[in-house]
Amino acid sequence: MKRISILLIFTLIFYGCKKDSNKSLNFINGYWEIESATTADGKKHEYTISTTVDYISINDSLTGFRKKLNPTLMGTYNTSKDAEKITVKIENDSLNLYYNTPFATWKETVIFANEEHLEVVNADNMTYLYKRFTPINVLE
User: Fold this and answer.
1) 21 — phi, psi (to 5°)?
2) Does residue 83 contact residue 66 with C-beta atoms inside 8 Å?
3) From first to last of its 140 residues, what are the pLDDT tens digits of the chain?
4) Three-class DSSP labels, the chain
5) What region, left, alpha or beta, does residue 75 occupy, with left being phi > 0 and alpha being psi -120 to 50 degrees?
6) Which domains does the chain have, with CATH numbers?
7) CA distances in angstroms from 65 to 16, 62, 82, 97, 98, listed in the order given
8) Is the full-model pTM beyond 0.85?
9) Which of 21, 48, 112, 114 is the most exposed place for a label (fewest CB within 10 A)?
10) At a CB cut-off of 8 Å and minimum separation 6, what does 114 contact?
11) According to the model, what pLDDT value does residue 140 have?
12) How far is 129 from 120, CA to CA, in rounded Å?
């Protein structure tokens, strides 16, 4: 009986700590500002000021895009027509974002996503931490 209890406890802990990729997907859409980047060997670069913001839009069919935007002091954005196509796949309990442009294709795996932060890692083991961007409007 004691062995069954221990096995049950470990099973509950394992499944309780399991990452819920579908839940992370709910937070990805929106405006993101890079906060830091960490290399594979642990070197971290903090971004105190960023002139661009990433806008991510993923629809119900798990496709979408990411655009680079330049926020203005009036609360609006300047952008080009360029966008990176995104296809979302849940593989081995991981939420993966597959990007495609005319020049390159790559994958990022979502490590963490909530209302305020998004963390992804790419194939080179570069980890990017983003914070939710709130526009500034000097006229308000």
Assistant:
1) -65, -35
2) yes
3) 444 444 334 443 444 444 566 788 899 999 999 999 999 999 999 999 888 999 999 999 999 999 999 988 888 889 988 999 999 999 998 999 999 999 999 999 999 999 999 999 999 999 999 999 987 766 76
4) CHHHHHHHHHHHHHHHCCCCHHHHHCCCCEEEEEEEEECCCCCEEECCCCCCEEEEEECCCCEEEEEEEEECCECCEEECCCCEEEEEEEECCEEEEEEECCCCEEEEEEEEECCCEEEEEECCCCEEEEEECCCCECCC
5) left
6) 20-132 (2.40.128.280)
7) 32, 10, 10, 10, 10
8) no
9) 48
10) 27
11) 62
12) 7
Q: Which residue bears the tokens 């979502």?
A: 110
Residues 6+ apart with CB under 8 A from 74: 137, 138, 139
Residue type, 48: T
Whether the CB-CB separation of 41 and 106 falls below 8 Å is answered with no
Cα 60 off chain centre by: 17
Q: In terms of residues, how long is the chain? A: 140
